[in-house]
Fold these 3 entries.
Entry 1:
Amino acid sequence: MTLMSGYPESYYTATAVGARECAPLEGARSADVCVIGGGFTGLSAALNLAERGLDVVLLEAERIGFGASGRCGGLIGSGQRMEVTDAEKMFGFERSRLLWDFAEEAKAEIKGRVEKHDIPCDLQRGQLLGIHKKGYLGHARELADVLAERYDYPFCAALNAEETRARVATNDFLEGLYDSEALSIHPLNFTLGLARAALEQGVRIYENSRVIKYSHTDPAIVETDKGSVKAPFVVLACNGYLGDLEPRVAGKMMPINNFMIATESLGESRARALIDGRYGVHDTRFVVDYFRLSEDHRLLFGGGENYRAGFPRDIARFVRPYMLKLFPQLKDVAIDYAWGGTLAVTVNRMPHIGKLSPNVFFGQGYSGHGISTATFAGKVIAEAVTGTASRFDVMADFPIHRFPGGTLLRYPGMVLGMLYYTIRDRL
Ligand SMILES: Cc1cc2nc3c(=O)[nH]c(=O)nc-3n(C[C@H](O)[C@H](O)[C@H](O)COP(=O)(O)OP(=O)(O)OC[C@H]3O[C@@H](n4cnc5c(N)ncnc54)[C@H](O)[C@@H]3O)c2cc1C
């Protein structure tokens, strides 16, 4: 097996740094905690637990970062997936402010991890939100003001059409909001860096070790086809790849597929004419377009989703029209890489963090905002396992409803919902 075998081909695997191969689990082991899933949630939980002195085994069905964490857009926005104005309406100002503060801590956690473990993941600052429709005009100014006045966050600047176009060469954006303290990373390299840190902290990581079942006992017995782990605590961190391992949480999230492409290198001057920096960009569409420039001057562009098992046969062909809608000037540009991944969304787009029993914890459903939120979820789960549950309890207290129809009928409902939002986006 080569270091990157077992991963889907992507720009990220082609530029991966620091992958290590971990053997599959064989035989019976025991640990204080068994973490299931090797993405941001699982690795962050494992690393934080090991730093608190616990003996941790992490089981990953495929390779570390095989899931959404190693395939995603790399944009780390400020706040939660739900905007503060919506969160205030739903939960009131105080809880909205608490959520905002958690999200700021989550960003700080990412920066802190990159620095502490010297993770080579191309950490960049800044993010621009492009307002794509007339009905949202004024939204950027309103949000910048609310954040500055009520959230002590003076780092967002509202941009008019001309200022926005000067930064991103598209006619699609009518206004913009530039957040100078948002971040972006090479997500697979960040994931591999967390894994390296976890290994160095003593976490035993087993790859190609799919958990097939675990007992609802204390201690729990977690089983793969070739081995088992006996542990007083279990952390479920499988997100969109959960499958039918745990039906009690499966119905509260929906796995959806999202897709990305990487163009050939545009060369420095053409790349800079497209976007005037290495920050991330996303727009106000319900199915968000998101993009940024890579270190080697490619456009990394995400757009388009589907709501069934399986990806389109030709992902490049599926995503390219989304890119050309924003950047028709790129029609001569070749696509070098195309890939997809599965994320999990919840009904209200709030993360779903909680406990299934006193010894089984889970984090999932970050709804496209998982880099910082999942990393933070792993940390608060580790805090809760070790007896400090104050932040965990706040996160676990947010109501997450089941998808209508549960795991069987959630997809038809989602397709209808998406049709509605697609039409709304165009009006
Ligand atoms: C294309 C795409 C673009 C995205 N863009 C962004 C973005 O720009 N910004 C952002 O913040 N978020 C983004 N997201 C969302 C973000 O990637 C996820 O929210 C985040 O990675 C979730 O991390 P996780 O660790 O919970 O799950 P994952 O990274 O999916 O990890 C779950 C792991 O569990 C493993 N697993 C599953 N079942 C088992 C089992 N039975 N036994 C053992 N292991 C198991 C899987 O193999 C997988 O590796 C995007 C997602 C996708 C797919």
Entry 2:
Amino acid sequence: MSGAVLAEGKRVVISELGEDPPEAIERFASLEPMPAPDPRTLGARDVIIAVRSAQVGWVDLLMTSGQYQHLPKPPYTPGLEYAGEVVWVGAACGDAIALGDEVLVDGFLAGPRSLGSYQAWGGFASYAVAPAEAVRRIPGGLSFDQACNLLGNYETAYHCLITRGRLAAGETVMIHGASGATGLAAVHIAKLVGARVIATGRAEDKLAVVRDEGADHVLGVRRPDGAPGVRELRDDVKALTGGRGVDVVYDGVGGDISAESLRCMRFGGRFLVVGWAATPGVSRGKGQRGAPNVNVLPTNLIMMKGLDVLGCPTVISTVNDPSLRPPRLAQILRWAEAGQIKPHVSHGFALADFKEAMRAKWRGEVTGGCVVRP
Ligand SMILES: NC(=O)c1ccc[n+]([C@@H]2O[C@H](COP(=O)([O-])OP(=O)(O)OC[C@H]3O[C@@H](n4cnc5c(N)ncnc54)[C@H](OP(=O)(O)O)[C@@H]3O)[C@@H](O)[C@H]2O)c1
């Protein structure tokens, strides 16, 4: 075993689940001193990472109120995905990992959403411990900020668009929430497989970035009279698709836009249920589960247009069928290594400003990724 003597650090602790993420952030989240992990308590396949950047994801927010499928047990440290520098390596880790390596950590195998004993080590902290198999060299010269925005976002986009959506070259996909972390990853992957992208969103400035990142067309969804809800999109989409409608819808937003999307689809199209950023209150807060405010889709439109509605839960599907992951991961790492995917990160904060980071994400100010830098 090897590594330097490590100084004390800091970590974010969620002491109790909130009714919703804003309550958890304001009342139950704090920055606390963190003793450096003691190598004498670690295993021979363990690695200590000095965290340089941790993604502040939508799922990180939902977990603070127990409104995500995977329920954390407070007190816990958020930060599903992080990247940093290796500062200690267990004796049985082999040659693949060395002190000083710049690495990202696989959120399936370590961190608060993982299933085993590494749940305790979230990325909103100076240090984290992960098993050797979760630690990967950062591909393609990505920065720490980009690296911690790679796997979860692009694996979600891949699972939804490719595995479930069977998106093919020459098809047109409409991507809602395209300025989001998974949404922008979906724009990138759709372009890599040769599809045409119509991206939607509420803010012109964020849509301009989405266009720069590769979307062929962007559509604002706000109503012209300023009222809440979503404007009619059908005529614009029909005009962009020769009257036909889109082949695939990637819906990470939910609520009003879902029903409007069905009117924009061709007969026999595929509607991908990815998430519901617009309606995070579908399930009860404080981890009480249930879905008192479920989203609904109009069955008449689904029936008359012969649509396939496909639920796309990446993690749950992968736990059910682990064979889904190796080809997905290999393709994403190949693209990253070749410089064909570069996560866009619009917001970065010091760890001490983690509340501001979480608020910015919650308020929808971010385009692509948001990070805290311990
Ligand atoms: N299926 C899966 O496996 C999977 C995996 C990860 C995440 N998800 C889910 O997918 C959804 C998107 O995730 P993400 O990480 O891309 O989230 P994100 O980064 O927060 O992006 C969501 C986007 O949705 C748009 N949006 C529209 N109405 C909104 C509202 N009322 N509040 C907030 N955003 C709104 C925003 O774009 P504009 O401001 O441009 O409108 C925002 O950029 C979430 O529901 C998440 O839980 C699903």
Entry 3:
Amino acid sequence: MPLAAAERALLEERRPLTKEEVLAVARLPLDDLPDLIALAHKVRLEYRGPEVELESLINAKSGACAEDCAFCSQSAHFDTGVDVYPFLDVEEVVAAARDSRDAGATQFCIVVAVRGPSERLLDRVIDAVDAVHAETGLEVACSLGLLTPEQAQRLATHGVRRYNHNLEAPRSMFPRICTTHTYDDRVETALLAKSTGMELCCGGIMGMGETLEERIDFAFELAALDPCEVPVNFLNPRPGTPLAATPVLSSREALQAIALFRLVMPAAWIRLAGGRELVLGELQAMGLYAGANALIIGNYLTTLGRTPEEDIALLDALGMPVADGPGEGRYVVAADGTHALPARPPRTRIPLNVE
Ligand code: SF4
């Protein structure tokens, strides 16, 4: 019943689900997961089509971060043995972007491990953004932490298409995850990035000890920010961090989370990111049937991923074409602040080797 009601709401009435409707779906036994996955896939196809968008990351400044996010091996508060280095040379960033493009990515995200960028660091990031644009033609995203209005505007002016700033955790558990900045600090930067015209990429990490209800709250908290893209990371407990002993989420819980996120945010790019290899294991394909329509390819910030070739081969096998660019993925927000679901967007695609 809850699945039929959700299907009717999303595919016939074309209205967002209420939290109660999503909770009813979430409370179905995990043995019913195939039915939830089937619905999430239908919703994804209806709102976003079969394309999968590929992005790669560069950890352009690693470690020694002053913040204390409990999941993060780059925090200076924890003894994790992570690499520590200042911002890379522009040439190294461009070389990584070129490799990403050659591997099939259409978007390249420059990430630095800081609370927020100093003016000097921002100057260097902008030099790198300009060089990647000029030499690769890739869309560039940035993830630089908390921004001032002037910094956000500079990034937008230099053509940064998308700004990543994750909320990371549900509001209710954020103080357990980080004490050096607040949830509202993160919300503020997310809204600031959007106000400059950059697209908002905003997600978080599953499996940090949140309850299923908190996970659903989190999906709604994200949806309220109207993100274009939602990275879904799964905790890969890093030695030396306070979450080192946290049990890894099961594959079925992870698939359920992906599918619920798709039901809550039917038109977003939902990107499988860090921890997907650890948590989904052999079930990578199921993640893409459960509503995800974007992947980080290659390595993550401090952990290794699969090879891009493996992911491209997987998409080929699934008959899911690689999207030819990041594209839009937004709710339509009416003047009275209510959300409406958009009509299915026009689709462009680069066919893979698919019959
Ligand atoms: S998540 Fe970001 S802000 Fe938090 S400790 Fe890691 S690098 Fe610093």
